[in-house]
């Protein structure tokens, strides 16, 4: 493609399945061209690209192992090579493996930090460099085209328990990076966090247990995938939000849970 894509382009990590897919579809329906990142779910990524393409003017799939620094550094340039522009980044992909303070290890923490913290920071860095190239002078940056980074966090950061210890540390580091990046990368980039509550079930929960846990919030319901995707779209569109986090959890962060939902 010799000229930039006519629609704004967003790179969504982990967009082949589950919450990332819902985000990709919501942004496509709002007119974004979606770069669908995946690691192992190639067929799911192809399906998501096809579904996004039916909603907007384009979509494409990009493979990358977010634990590999060289691969992460090459990801956004690959998107630019094909689509010629990137306007936003949604860091949705996440490693989520159980450990506790009793089972903690350097290896467990490093595994989570690589994909959950370091990769989002490197991708934000790459988007910043792209925006610098597009708008060399800070005075040239028009507000409607300011780049945006949205980092998916977790209500666990405001309602901590010892389960999934390394995962929580990696997300806490990303939340801190959220603030620092918002300061360092302005005005070319805004950086916003979105922190869901219990949103999707997993192999650790049967349907009945998930439904009961989902109701455990001040509002009587936690977040749905569409709730989270809508918050991401809002963060992308609202030009006055940066350096803060939108908690989308039905108020679950206001309650005290001694264990992670999946282990309750």
Indicate the topology.
Blueprint: E1 9-12, H1 18-29, E2 33-38, H2 42-53, E3 59-63, H3 69-83, E4 88-91, H4 106-134, E5 147-152, H5 165-184, E6 189-196, H6 207-214, H7 225-237, E7 244-248
Keywords:
single chain, alpha/beta, Rossmann fold, 7 strands, globular, 264 residues
Q: What is the compact description of this entry?
A:
The protein is an alpha/beta fold. It contains 7 helices and 7 strands.
Write up this protein.
This protein is of the alpha/beta class. The protein has one domain: Rossmann fold, CATH 3.40.50.720. The protein has helices spanning 18-29, 42-53, 69-83, 106-134, 165-184, 207-214, 225-237, and strands at residues 9-12, 33-38, 59-63, 88-91, 147-152, 189-196, 244-248. α4 (106-134) links the parallel β4 (88-91) and β5. α1 runs parallel beside α2 and α4 (106-134) packs parallel to α5. It is globular, with a radius of gyration of 18 Å. 45% of the residues are buried.
Class derived from helix and strand content: alpha/beta
Strand content: 5-15%
Count of runs of 4 or more consecutive helical residues: 7
Secondary structure: number of strands: 7
**Gyration radius from CA atoms, angstroms:** 18 Å
Outline: globular
The H-and-E topology, N to C, reads as: EHEHEHEHEHEHHE
The N- and C-terminal alpha carbons lie at a distance of 51 Å
Please bin the fraction of helical residues.
40-55%
Corresponding CATH superfamily: NAD(P)-binding Rossmann-like Domain
Number of domains: 1
**Largest sheet, spatial ordering of strands:** 3-2-1-4-5-6-7
Low-confidence stretches: none
Which architecture would the CATH scheme give at its second level?
3-Layer(aba) Sandwich
CATH class: Alpha Beta
Largest sheet features: 7 strands, parallel
CATH fold call: Rossmann fold
Mean pLDDT: 94
């Amino acid at each position: 493609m010799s000229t930039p894509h006519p629609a704004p382009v967003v790179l969504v990590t982990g967009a082949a399945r589950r919450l990332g897919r819902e985000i990709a579809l919501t942004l496509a329906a709002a007119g974004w061209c979606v770069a669908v990142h995946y690691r192992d779910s190639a067929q799911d990524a192809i399906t998501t690209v096809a579904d996004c393409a039916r909603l907007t003017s384009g979509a494409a799939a990009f493979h990358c192992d977010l634990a590999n620094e060289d691969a992460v550094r090459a990801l956004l340039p690959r998107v630019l090579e094909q689509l010629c522009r990137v306007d936003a980044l949604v860091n949705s992909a996440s490693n989520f493996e159980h450990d506790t303070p009793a089972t903690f290890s350097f290896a467990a923490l490093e595994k989570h930090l690589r994909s959950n913290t370091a990769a989002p920071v490197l991708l934000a860095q790459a988007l910043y460099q792209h925006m610098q190239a597009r708008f060399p002078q800070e005075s040239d940056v028009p507000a409607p085209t300011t780049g945006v980074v949205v980092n998916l966090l977790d209500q666990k950061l405001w309602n901590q328990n010892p389960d999934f210890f390394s995962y929580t540390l990696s997300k806490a580091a990303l939340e801190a990076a959220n603030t620092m990046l918002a300061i360092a990368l302005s005005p070319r980039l805004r950086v916003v966090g979105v922190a869901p509550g219990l949103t999707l079930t997993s192999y650790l929960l049967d349907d009945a247990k998930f439904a009961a846990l989902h109701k455990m919030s001040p509002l009587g319901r936690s977040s749905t995938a569409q709730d989270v995707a809508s918050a991401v779209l809002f963060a992308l569109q609202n030009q006055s939000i940066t350096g803060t986090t939108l908690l989308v959890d039905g108020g679950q962060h206001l309650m005290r849970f001694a264990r992670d939902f999946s282990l309750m």
